[in-house]
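#random but structural
TW: two for the price of one
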Amino acid sequence: MRRRRRHRARRVLIAQAVLVTGAAAALVAMEYPGLVREIKIWRMMGTSSGARRPG
């Protein structure tokens, strides 16, 4: 009986991991066009991610 419980618990954990991964992938897919647009804006402004040089 205990073996079945372990298997069932493992299946539930795997299912949860799959759902969370799918949700994260969907979020990235939905936000991707906005991120591309932001990167283009940063490039046009000439802003780098590092610290600016004085002067």
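TW: number two ↓
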Amino acid sequence: MELWIQPCAACADLYGRPSSVEPHDTLAPGTPDTASPNQHYVCGRCSAVFTRVLSGRQAGQIWMLLNAGQH
């Protein structure tokens, strides 16, 4: 079986951008992780899962795509 990660255009655009950029309208907060200062989001369009890195060096505070829906 061949798997491809296919985020929607809005998620592809958000990936790697600074965490100060606001999430697009189809991203909803995911399950909170009280042990982490980062925020987790799930896309209602493509099922991508993001973490919004809010700690550490400024250059590392980005939107990180953890996975995307497998199509």
